[in-house]
Each structure stands twice: as structure tokens, then as C-alpha cells.
Amino acid sequence: MEHLIEIKKIRKVFKTGTVATNALRDVDLTINKGEFVSIKGPSGSGKSTLLNIIGLLEDYESGSYKLDGVEASSLNDDQASELRNEKIGFIFQNFNLIAELSLYDNIEVPLIYRGMTSQERKQRVEESLRLVGLWGRKEHRPDQLSGGQRQRVAIARALAGKPSLILADEPTGNLDSEMAASVMDLLYQINEMGNTIVMVTHDDELASKTQRQIQVTDGVVKQCDTETELLKEQEASYA
Amino acid sequence: MLKYNMKMAWLSIRRRPVLNLLMVMAIGIGIGIFTAAITMVYQGSQTDLPHKSDRLFLVQLDSRNLASEPVDNFNKMIDMTYIDTVNVSQIDYPKSQITFGWLTDQLVNVENKNVMPYRGFSFVTNRAFFSIMDIPFLYGSAWSQEQEISGAPVVVITKARNDLLFNGENSVGKQIRLDDKAVTIVGVIDEWHVRYRFYDRTFMKGLSDDAYLPYRYALDANLSRNARFECWDNTSMRYQSSGTEELLASECGWITVWSLLDSKDDLAEFRNVLDDYVDGQRASGRFPREGGHLLTSLDEVMAYVHNKNVDYQFYFIIGSMFMAACIFSAVGIMLANFMSKTREVCIRRALGAKRKVLIGQYISEVAVVGFIGGVLGIFISFGSLHLMKLKMFHSVGFYADIADLDLLFKLDAVMVGTGIFIAIISSILVSITPILRVCQVKVSRNLTME
């Protein structure tokens, strides 16, 4: 299998005054193209920091991170933005849609920064909104939608740029169970289309439905291929 | 990208109407007062007849006696005597056109009983005055050469007086009375105004003429003069308010003389012509002093006047201070505006916006706010200038024509452009720190916050 993400010996330290906190300790992680991986762990374990590093939103003290063969530490800010725009789609727990923009305009944002023509953008936005079933509401603003619909828009925005990787941070965290199931169905469907998805979640049931589960505990990553291994790791982390 | 930035700017303004309204008002008021001040400075520092002001010369001859004080600039120099005025205007030098004149005032009356008699100002001059000063005619023309020489009782009136006396109809051939003398109208001039009344050296603002009279007629009719009058033969002072042949032959100066040269390169040659004239007069016992003549271009005359005009410097300082205060208050408004965009900035950064692209986007947004503020400022400036014009109109007295003040308070395209440009630039300057600050925020921390 071809690697999309290759992380070796990544260390991340947060400093507050004189106090240093090791958020990630010598993390090694490899994710293949087309995988659907979940990252689990208690609050403060470092799972969101890991997701931010993968998303090129956070730098790190040492180690190596290659996204689709490109070494992240060699990129300046502009290059990182370009790579993020081209390769990564984000889905956040709180949707992070821009309130004053219509659904159409929200989905168009990453395409604008990629320098696509108006015609290309229109085609991509339409495809994405049709996929999530909201093309008919393209002129609506986010505050005119339910939570589940907003998350569908966020998914459409993440997909519009046809990225290699979709990073989802607690994508169902703000949704009721019915809405959450609907969003997860959509993610499975997207994964089946060949997209790589890395999802941070607290929900064991959702995590169990992904191809691989990763446990983060005190900044240390344990990769578990079976649910039994994961349960053992979880027990150890809460002990 | 510009189109997208403009769209985002408009949406953002709609999203935060109060903050943007405050910003627009702060900029608008600051720019309004500042633009009004710089308009007064700018218009007040302009010279009339700019296309010929470097070759239109005030001519002054110094025939004073040896005891008179030395003079080094036009403002302290005497006006011309009638003898020298006539002689200089008759010099055979085809590259120069000469005009001259002085102010008179009379009671103006017409047959129409509905028009009350009023005291009006007439400028006594020669027919070259109209062409040299680029005065347009609405009806008729200047008096003829024959009428000028013969002292015919004719007059050219202004459009404003024609409107008042004849309801704007063509009045050529009709008569008006100046005191007890009837004169026939040969021409009505169209709108013609100067910022400062330079041609008789009063430099008054808002003092318009009612009529123009041929000099020979004014002298023959012994019309009173309302001009500075200096004699260096004390016995001649008795001529101050009357005109006789003795006055015309006296060493009293009251006539302002101008020479329009074909080219400013002819100046040296014209000086030589005047030197020759002075030498000739000196041989006959006049011009006892050294030197003898002073030529000052209209540009130089007005530069001297502008330097003396401290009112406008005061307005400029007040306007600048007012704008600085408004811009200073706008900094706080902008900081609040952009700090409220932190989440949006982080979303856009996460979606791949480069920092410099976002900075450009937000600069476009404040440029739009600055433009709107600038437009508001132009309206405020327009109102302020109108109020200042009214104030000056009432302060200069009953004889003023408000149209004569228009040029001094005119908000022209240059000033409108300057005002809007300054509004945009100052909006960007006050916003650049908040924009840079918000574009530096840590993306990951702001996006994961609930």
C-alpha cells in the first residue's frame, strides 16, 4: 500500500512560562492512501495536537512528517498553505463555516485560494452540494440550517477541493445520534470513493467502524488493529 | 481576486454594520473637515489666469522725488500717474498689450421703478482689459476704439447686474444712470470671477464689479475715484476726489497698469523699452531716483499675497488636528472589528489562504470602508465649505456677490480625488496593525475552541 502520511519520532512541547508540557513523545505513525483511521484518547492526551500536525496547522520540535511524500518541516508558511489547500480537507466539530457567507460561498472558499476559474468553482461546488443533498439550499446561510445540515456543508467544503486527505475532528460531537449516524454514513461513502480519512473521536462505536484505531495516551501513540487491543490500551490509559 | 475581495468587503460591512458605521463616520468627519481646510488652502493659493500669469506683468514706474523711501517690492510701490499710463500704453512695442484701470463707485439707477437705486462699483479701464483678462461676453462686446478715444458715454455691465436690472434680457442699447449721467450699454459680460481682485491691487475676495467704463469717458465726466491715491507733490492732494486737466498732468499715482507680453522671454526686451522711456523722461526732468521701474508677474504678485494669508494656514492646522483625532479614534474601532474576525481568519488559513492573500483581502475591505468614509467626507466638506463661504459673504459686506467667492471654496475634482485618496490611505494605515495582528493568530488553537 502507498503511504499518504509518514510520521517518525515527532515530538511536540507546549511551553507556558517556565512550564513545558510534552504533548507528543516520539510519535511514529503511518497511514496509507484510502484508509479510514480513527484516533482515540482522553482529553489532553495529544490527539488534537497530532491532528493539527497532520493538518499542517501546528509545527513540531523534532522528527519527520511526510504528507504524500513532501517533508512538512521543509515548507515555509506559504508553501504549507498551498499544500494544505491542495491535499487536505477539514471537518470540525463546530463546523467552522463562515457565518456571513452563503453555503455556495462557504464551499467556494478553498477553491478561490487555489486560483480556480469561476466555471471550475461552480462545477465543484455543485458536485459537492449535490453529494450532501443541499444544492437546493445553496443560497442559504449557515444559521438557517440545522446542526446536521451544517456538518454536511462542512463535509461538502472539505470534498470540494478533491483532497487526498480528510481530517475530521469530532465530526459528530455536536450532533444528536440520528444526525451523527447520517454524517458517518456520508463519511463511509466518501471513504469508499477512495478518500483517506483521519477522524478524532470519543465515540467507541464510531471508532469501531473505522478500518484502524489509534490510541493516544499522554502523547504516546499506540496503533491497535483489533478492538480487544484497543480496549486494553484504553484501560491502561485510564488506570 | 479583486472581485472576490470586493464581495467579501461588502458582506463584512453588512455583517458588522455598527462597527463599520462608526468607522465610516470617524473617517468621514475627519476627512470632511480636513478636505474643507485643504480646499481653502489649495483654492486660495491658486493664481487666476494660470495660462498667462507668468507673462502678465504689473507695471510700476517710480517717478517719486528723491526724499521718498526706497521700495523693493510691488506692494510698497506707488500706482502709475496718468501721464506715464498714457505714455506707456502708446509705446510702439507690439509684443506687449497694455491695460490699466481704477475703481469708481456711483449710484446706479434705471427706468424700471421696481429696481431701487443702489451704489455700485465700476471699473474704469481700456478696451484691451476684456481680451487680456479673458472675459467672455453674453451680449454685445467691448466698446470700440473710436468710442474709447472720443470718451463716448458707454458701459459694459455684468451678467449679475443685467439679471437684476433687465431680468437677464439682452440690454445692449439700453441706458442706465450712474449718479446723474446716462450711459448706453454696449455689452454684457458672462460669468467671470477671480479669486482675488488682483487687477486693481486691492486683492479683495468677493468684491465684484457692476460695470466697466471707458477711461476717457470717466475722466471727462469727472467720476469720483475709489482707489489708492498717492502724490509726491503735496499740493496735488487736492485732486484726490476730483478730476481735472491739472490732475492728469500731476505727479499723483492711482492707476494700476498691466502688460501682457507675447512670451515671458520678451521680458528683458520690455525692460529695455521701459528703461528707454524712463531715460527719456529723466532727460525732461522727471524720474530723479535710481532705477525707475518695477515689473512683477502675476505669479509673483499672487505668491506675495498668498504668503501674507495666514487664515488658511490656521485652517490647515485645525483641519489636520481634527483629522488626526478622528483617525486616532478609528484605530480602536478597527482593532475591535478585526479581533472579531479571528475565527474567520483561522478558518480561511486552514482552508489554504496564504497570510499575504488574507492581508490583501482585509486591506481591500478597509479600502472600501475608507472609500465610503471618503464619500461621506466629501459631502461634509461640501457643506463645511458652503458654510465658510456664507460666513465670508456676510463678513465682506453688502457689495459682495456670492458667486465671486465660489472659486475660493470650490470643491473641484482634484480636491474630491485627494479627499477620497487620503480617506482610503488613512483607513489602510489605521487598520494595518489590527490586520497584521489578526493574521498572525495561532490557527489550530482558535479552530479547536468551542
Automatic annotation (TrEMBL), chain A:
InterPro entries: AAA+_ATPase, ABC_transporter-like_ATP-bd, ABC_transporter-like_CS, ABC_transpr_LolD-like, MacB-like_ATP-bd, P-loop_NTPase. Residues 5-239 form the ABC transporter domain. It comes from the Bacteria. Belongs to the ABC transporter superfamily. Macrolide exporter (TC 3.A.1.122) family. GO terms for molecular function: ATP binding; ATP hydrolysis activity; transmembrane transporter activity. The keyword Flavoprotein does not apply. The keyword Metal-binding does not apply. Keywords: ATP-binding, Nucleotide-binding, Transport. This is ABC transporter ATP-binding protein. One of its GO terms (cellular component) is plasma membrane.
Automatic annotation (TrEMBL), chain B:
It comes from Pseudoalteromonas maricaloris. It is found in: Cell membrane. Keywords: Cell membrane, Membrane, Transmembrane, Transmembrane helix. Residues 21-226 form the MacB-like periplasmic core domain. Its main location: membrane. One of its GO terms (molecular function) is transmembrane transporter activity. PANTHER family: ABC-TYPE MACROLIDE FAMILY EXPORT SYSTEM PERMEASE COMPONENT 2 (PTHR30572:SF18), MEMBRANE COMPONENT OF TRANSPORTER-RELATED (PTHR30572). It is a multi-pass membrane protein. It comes from the Bacteria. This is ABC transporter permease. The chain crosses the membrane at residues 21-42, 314-336, 357-382, 413-436. Residues 317-439 form the ABC3 transporter permease C-terminal domain. One of its GO terms (cellular component) is plasma membrane.
